[in-house]
Amino acid sequence: MADNRWRDYYLVLYQVAIALGETLETRVVLERLLRGVIEALHLKGASIRLLTETGLLERVASEGLTPGYLQKGPVEISRSPIDQQALAGQPVQIEDVTTDPRFEYPQAAQREGIVSAVFVPLIAQGKPIGVLRVYTGERRLFTQEELELLVALANLGALAIANARLYQFCVRDQQLAAEALWSFRLPNEFLGGEGSGGIGDQGAGSRGTEENAGQGAAGRES
Q1: What is the pTM of this model?
Q2: Which of 6, 22, 183, 211 yields a CA-CA distance of 20 to 30 A from 138?
Q3: pLDDT tens digits, residue range 63-82?
Q4: In this structure, is residue 59 part of a structural domain?
Q5: Sign of CA dihedral 184, 188, 192, 193
Q6: DSSP for residue 135
Q7: Which domain holds residue 210?
Q8: In the β-sheet with 57-63, what is the strand arrangement from edge to edge?
């Protein structure tokens, strides 16, 4: 039984790592990550939320959760102590979300059938950028091995997001460079303008010299 469990853990890590190498589409990687962790840990659902400049945690991927629960309302860091703890750098678990005061929207969770939850930070370049949230439909305390798997998956998710952002930055940089290049105009002296002795003028001059030379030779022969 334990062997099967570890096999499932390694399989989900392998699948996410493969997805990272196959695509820069963040959504594809994150959805595969969530499906894998739900299957490996037998969860009810999971989601990934990213930190915004306005202090919100914005959902970017989810699996196993109903539209009603996903639309329960915004997640504000200032009003969500459990997310504040997770963003400090360590996974945090709640055994019963309906009674723990750190959990926002307990009534919505009860309607959804959520009982326990774990909140894991997504860390990129040493800074928290979001939270991986996983939910169960029964009361449960996660083992240390399960928490370590969640941390590893959260790190892979953060890597996927960082790679996508870096790629977008590089593409934008290239576009700006191309636009600057097209709008750049060389001075006339580099374009063979009037009086500049450009390449075109030099070509015409050399042809004229050859013709004069030919005429002079013909005159001498006659």
Answers
A1: 0.71
A2: 6
A3: 999 999 999 999 999 999 99
A4: yes
A5: positive
A6: E
A7: 188-221
A8: 57-63, 45-51, 127-136, 116-124, 92-94
